[in-house]
């Protein structure tokens, strides 16, 4: 039996909603079959008011052991570092989270906000939001570079806006069933089993990427083509298993014709949503994509692309995803 | 600090209930109690993230990405109104297929929300030991206890199904931005339609008819009056023993039909467009194109909805000054709650008001009950939703926690049938998108009905970037504070007169708050709890 406490800071609850879509295992299976004892979750628990306060005190007094602390949402530090923009029981929420993090065996950040600050931390960051151990791509965040949970690990980052339920349940189950040594973290503290591959890995449009055939426009235009050239798709530069472990067991953004917006990466939202950057590929010299697949550079990429376009087969111009 | 909930000799006390869990966010409710009854209430939203400030100066389409992240529960609804705000600002043309898909996606999110909210959030409160003496208590626990309840598991699990339809058209749920000005990004295929229909039928067979209704969706929707509902209950054992039947019987036994009425005045912004009648979205043409109509009910009369009559008052909210502005002139300039409290401010929610002709600025309840009351307005076109049941119910038995919850459950049957119809109408060989001209200047208004109620955006674009962006959420309508006239917000009003059995565990207040299902994360603004000193000052309220 492992005790789990789920805290939410500056959150939209999207990760909770995503988590509730989990199927293998379901959230209910987690509790009934995998021995995860949810001490408190703001959307799933019976207790409220004084009962929650008592539970918090028992954790802080070491009367109840805390195995896993899950944090959803940013740490809100505003205004001016006081934390008054997010209070819980007459105390800044950030102080509660700080205390729990230092009691927990494992600390898991779920979703971009908790990992890196996410959308609320977008300039001008009015709530002074920050991630648990990162601020965007910079290590440190709220808990600091040196932070280790009681089991000796840094914060485990499960990013995404939201995170996919399977990414969450599998890590929780690994901890609960003593397989945590199987969880290897990458250099952004993400489980590499999910974040080694690219969003493009398994994308149904990858053949069009190969022959450099763009999507001309949305809607019926997405019956063919790759969204990387015009619509600003970040699939080749983003680490996620979105096209390996499908969303809601059905699809993914890129399969449906929506450009990947890179939401598993710490820089999300990219370019701070500046005018001209939403759903538009950023280019150099008018036609060369400014950002190209990891490990390549715009010049060698464009040489390669010109060749591919020149030898592309006829079908690469045709609709493939037809009614 | 004195322990809260201490009963003082005068029988006048005030308790502050922290974090009424399961209203999906941070809500502190302060109530004044006299002789065991609530005589005054303050709802305090405790979090500020500043989305409207983030949007200023950004790409005009940033709202499609940012506003869904205001609330992960109704993110698809945020996307819907954000796209209509851009459609009206840019003067786009939206092909009928795109309108159908937007309708389907919006409805999919809503029918997901109904079982998820009822089982995971609302019904578990009905298993509270306060009600152990009820004859039906054991059955309620057997079905609705958290994690262990037989229908809890079915309800929570089935809630993930409708959003699979959302994912088919939009890639994923939550947080897709697949609706774009001029249409949608996707172009479905035959199998997408077939699978969507099949998922809908799964929802109907495994939950809607088998568990919730105990009859067909069509049969339930034949009920036009409260008397019809009572007759339906007695018609068959399947009706009485369905979750809906059990909920009605149990509510009447434990008194959920007796409190939580709220203001009795309602607003619906309306939702779902007739695909032929909103090809060129404009603010002026919106009402006439809605399938689920917009409107105001002032307790006696109906009025047409006009976005120009909406104001946001922030006299008691943690924002600088104390004005009341139309959202196009809206301001979001937060202050430190410590400072704000000195001026009598107590929440991060603003107080949305509607200027009803002849009545003035009025707090209005939004949500499923509001929608279903407006659905009873006479004069609907044959393609619009006309449904007199809830207008009859509030006239016959008055609004209450029970009636509000019934309105929400009722919509599952309605939207299931609508979605099937819309899926049939999609023409796979026609357009799903018409590329718009991105205008550097413009004003737009987009609105829809999230599961929890009216949701709207006002956008102003200048020099190709966002000049001002204001969002009014259903939670703000319901959970907002007093305004400069001293009028309480809807939930504050709904708390008044409630008998509290145990001030240490005021489950009654939780039922009310949860019947509104406000996701406080769904207000763009929220609050800071009182410092201990001020709390002490308020610990005993003098009621004269």
From TrEMBL, chain B:
Keyword Magnesium annotated: yes
Binding, Ni(2+): 71, 74, 519
Positions of Mg(2+) binding: 52, 471, 525
Pfam family, one: NiFeSe_Hases
Annotated localization: Cell envelope
Record flagged with keyword Oxidoreductase: yes
Cofactor or coenzyme needed: Ni(2+); Fe cation
Main location: other
Binding-site residues for Fe cation, renumbered to this chain: 74, 522
Domain of life, per lineage: Bacteria
Keywords on record: Iron, Magnesium, Metal-binding, Nickel, Oxidoreductase
Record InterPro entries: Ni-dep_hyd_lsu (IPR001501), Ni-dep_hyd_lsu_Ni_BS (IPR018194), NiFe-Hase_large (IPR029014), NiFe/NiFeSe_hydrgnase_LSU (IPR050867)
Gene Ontology molecular function: ferredoxin hydrogenase activity; nickel cation binding
Protein family (similarity comment): Belongs to the [NiFe]/[NiFeSe] hydrogenase large subunit family.
Protein name, as recorded: Cytochrome-c3 hydrogenase
Upper taxonomic lineage: Bacteria, Bacillati, Bacillota, Bacilli, Bacillales
């Amino acid at each position: 039996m492992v005790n789990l406490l789920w805290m939410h800071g500056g959150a939209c609850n999207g990760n909770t909603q995503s988590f509730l879509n989990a199927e293998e295992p379901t959230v209910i299976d987690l509790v009934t079959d995998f021995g995860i004892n949810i001490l408190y979750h703001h959307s799933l628990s019976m207790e409220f008011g004084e009962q929650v306060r008592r539970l918090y005190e028992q954790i802080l007094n070491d009367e109840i052991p805390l195995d896993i602390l899950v944090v959803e949402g940013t740490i809100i530090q505003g205004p001016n570092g006081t934390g008054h923009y997010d209070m819980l029981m007459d105390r800044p929420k950030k102080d509660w989270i700080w205390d729990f993090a230092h009691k927990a065996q494992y600390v898991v950040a779920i979703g971009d906000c908790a990992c890196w600050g996410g959308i609320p931390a977008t300039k001008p960051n009015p709530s002074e939001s920050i991630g648990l151990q990162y601020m965007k791509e910079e290590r440190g965040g709220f808990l600091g570079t040196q932070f280790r949970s009681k089991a000796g690990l840094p914060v485990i980052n499960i990013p995404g806006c939201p995170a996919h339920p399977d990414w969450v349940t599998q890590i929780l189950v690994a901890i609960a069933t003593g397989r945590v040594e199987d969880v290897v973290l990458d250099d952004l503290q993400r489980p590499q089993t999910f974040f080694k591959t690219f969003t493009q890995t398994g994308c149904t449009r990858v053949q069009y990427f190969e022959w450099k055939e763009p999507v001309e426009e949305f809607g019926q235009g997405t019956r063919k083509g790759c969204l990387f050239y015009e619509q600003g798709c970040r699939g080749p530069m983003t680490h996620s298993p979105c096209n390996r472990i499908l969303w809601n067991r059905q699809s993914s953004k890129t399969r449906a014709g929506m450009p990947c917006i890179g939401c598993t990466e710490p820089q999300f939202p990219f370019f701070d949503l500046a005018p001209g950057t939403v759903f538009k590929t950023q280019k150099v010299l008018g036609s060369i994509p400014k950002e190209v697949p990891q490990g390549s550079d715009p010049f060698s990429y464009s040489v390669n692309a010109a060749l591919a376009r020149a030898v592309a087969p006829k079908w690469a111009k045709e609709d493939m995803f037809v009614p | 600090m004195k322990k809260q909930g201490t009963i003082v000799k005068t029988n006048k006390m005030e308790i502050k209930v922290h974090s009424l869990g399961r209203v999906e966010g941070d809500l502190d409710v302060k109530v004044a109690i006299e002789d065991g009854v609530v005589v005054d209430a303050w709802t305090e939203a405790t979090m500020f993230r500043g989305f409207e400030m983030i949007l200023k100066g950004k790409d005009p389409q940033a709202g499609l990405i940012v506003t869904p992240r205001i609330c992960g529960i109704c993110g698809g609804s945020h996307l819907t109104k954000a796209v209509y705000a851009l459609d009206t600002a840019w003067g786009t043309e939206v092909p009928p297929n795109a309108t159908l898909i937007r309708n389907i996606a919006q409805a999919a999110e809503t029918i997901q929300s109904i079982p998820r909210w009822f089982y995971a959030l609302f019904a578990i409160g009905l298993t509270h030991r306060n009600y152990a003496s009820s004859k039906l208590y054991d059955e309620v626990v057997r079905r609705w206890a958290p994690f262990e309840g037989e229908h809890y598991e079915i309800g929570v699990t089935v809630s993930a199904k409708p959003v699979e339809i959302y994912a088919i058209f939009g890639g994923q749920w939550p947080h897709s931005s697949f609706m774009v000005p001029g249409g949608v990004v996707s172009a479905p295929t035959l199998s997408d339609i077939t699978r969507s229909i099949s998922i809908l039928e799964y929802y109907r067979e495994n939950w809607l008819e088998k568990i919730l209704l105990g009859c067909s969706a069509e049969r339930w929707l034949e009920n036009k009056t409260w008397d019809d509902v009572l007759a339906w209950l007695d018609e068959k054992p399947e009706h009485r023993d369905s979750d809906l039947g059990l909920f009605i019987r149990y509510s009447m036994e434990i008194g959920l039909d007796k409190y939580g009425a709220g203001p009795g005045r309602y607003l619906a912004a309306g939702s779902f467009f007739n695909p032929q009648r909103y090809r060129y979205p404009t603010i002026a043409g919106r009402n006439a194109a809605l399938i689920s109509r917009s409107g105001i009910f002032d307790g006696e009369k109906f009025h047409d909805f006009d976005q120009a009559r909406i104001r946001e008052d922030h006299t008691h909210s943690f924002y600088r000054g104390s004005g009341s502005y139309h959202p196009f002139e809206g301001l979001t300039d937060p202050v430190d709650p410590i400072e704000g409290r000195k001026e009598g401010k107590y929440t991060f929610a603003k107080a949305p008001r509607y200027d009803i002709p002849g009545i003035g600025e009025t707090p209005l309840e939004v949500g499923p009950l509001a929608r279903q009351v407006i659905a009873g307005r006479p004069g609907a076109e044959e393609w619009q939703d006309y449904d007199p049941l809830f207008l009859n119910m509030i006239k016959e038995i008055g609004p209450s926690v029970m009636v509000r919850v019934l309105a929400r459950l009722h919509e599952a049957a309605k939207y299931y049938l609508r979605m099937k119809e819309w899926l049939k109408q999609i023409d796979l060989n026609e357009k799903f998108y018409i590329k718009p001209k991105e205008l550097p200047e413009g004003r737009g208004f987009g609105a829809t009905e999230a599961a929890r109620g009216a949701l709207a955006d006002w956008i102003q674009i200048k020099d190709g970037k966002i000049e001002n962006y204001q969002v009014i959420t259903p939670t703000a309508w319901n959970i907002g504070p007093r305004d400069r006239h001293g009028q309480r917000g809807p939930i504050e009003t709904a708390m008044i007169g409630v008998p509290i059995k145990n001030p240490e565990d005021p489950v009654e207040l939780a039922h009310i708050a949860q019947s509104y299902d406000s996701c406080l994360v769904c207000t763009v603004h929220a609050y800071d709890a009182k410092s201990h000193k001020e709390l002490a000052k308020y610990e005993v309220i003098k009621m004269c």
